[in-house]
């Protein structure tokens, strides 16, 4: 709870104090405003110009620039404070006059008279956009592969668990594909890791481009990738996706002086037939992948079917 109290002063001291305080407020980089209990804006500091690009004359003008997803939260905090709730803090987004979205860290403080009467609400905020951007970058690094930009193992497991939960609720079908690039070690060993990294980046783009928006392609590490198809209308659709991936990898691409195509070994497991939880599906899709490798690679295998398939263009 944040609660302030107006102290009784003689007129001279009060005037001097108000002038001194006003100068501090006007020079502060923090956005500072005073509101009546009805929400009317009584005072706003010059830092509003510095922070938002303009002095907004009313509370309504300010709220119109608050992000629509945050606006009601800010309203609720103000009214709770104005009705004696004590105040609180809120991080929210607000649009600068140049169109850029900023993050503000705000605090609302209830101001009481010496007799305990609630008088006004003070709103103090500061720009924390740089901090929020850094937090977003760190979060992205924690959940994405830095080389390809794809989700990493951690994020993939979260997506898999969410897809399983949804499939169980709806009674639907989903599929898991596990890809291993054939002979990728040769590229690294003979052409160098820089070429290998560039190869992986294009490979990831090709595979991602063969999928739907709702599908997830993740790099699990090295030359291993997983694909989650969270909604499968018919089992035949999974095979269609597999063939589309193989076809996309047969279009040559250049990396420096080299030209590449790629083949993969791919295992496939389908929920609920091949497993009803993440551990079972991952185990069975891995088993299917190694069946492909045992048959000479460059193909795909459904776990249940135990039949090995080569794509039409495989040699």
Automatic annotation (TrEMBL):
Task: List each copy of the PAC domain by range.
Answer: 88-140
Q: Which Pfam families match?
A: GGDEF, PAS_3
Residue stretches making up the GGDEF domain: 172-305
NCBIfam families according to UniProt: GGDEF, sensory_box
For this entry, the protein name equals Diguanylate cyclase
Q: Give the species this sequence originates from.
A: Paenibacillus athensensis
């Amino acid at each position: 709870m944040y609660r302030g109290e107006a102290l009784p002063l003689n007129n001279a001291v009060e005037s001097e104090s108000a002038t001194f305080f006003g100068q501090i407020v006007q020079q502060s980089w923090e956005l500072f405003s005073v509101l009546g209990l009805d929400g009317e804006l009584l005072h706003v500091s010059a830092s509003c110009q510095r922070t938002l690009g303009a002095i907004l004359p009313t509370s309504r003008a300010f709220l119109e620039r608050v992000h629509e997803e945050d606006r009601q939260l800010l309203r609720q905090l103000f009214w709770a404070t104005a009705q004696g709730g004590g105040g609180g803090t809120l991080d929210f987004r607000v649009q600068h006059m140049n169109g850029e979205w900023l993050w503000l860290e705000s605090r609302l403080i209830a101001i009481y008279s010496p007799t305990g009467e609630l008088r006004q609400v003070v709103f103090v905020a500061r720009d924390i956009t740089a901090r929020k951007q850094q937090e977003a970058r760190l979060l992205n690094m924690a959940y994405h592969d830095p080389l390809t930009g794809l989700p990493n193992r951690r994020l993939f497991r979260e997506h898999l668990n969410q897809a399983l939960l949804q499939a169980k609720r709806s009674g639907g079908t989903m599929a898991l594909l596990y890809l291993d690039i054939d002979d990728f070690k040769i590229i690294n060993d003979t052409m160098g890791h820089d070429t290998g990294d560039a190869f992986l980046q294009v490979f990831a783009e090709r595979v991602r481009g063969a999928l739907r928006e709702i599908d997830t392609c993740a790099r699990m590490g090295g030359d291993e990738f997983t694909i989650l198809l969270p909604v499968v209308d018919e089992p035949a659709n999974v095979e269609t996706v597999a063939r589309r991936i193989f076809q996309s990898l047969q279009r040559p691409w250049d990396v420096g002086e080299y030209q590449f195509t790629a083949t993969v070994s791919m295992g496939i497991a389908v929920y609920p037939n091949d497993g009803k939880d993440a551990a079972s599906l991952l185990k069975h899709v891995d088993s299917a992948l190694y069946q492909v490798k045992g048959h000479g690679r460059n193909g795909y295998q459904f776990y249940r079917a135990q039949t090995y398939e080569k794509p039409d263009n495989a040699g």
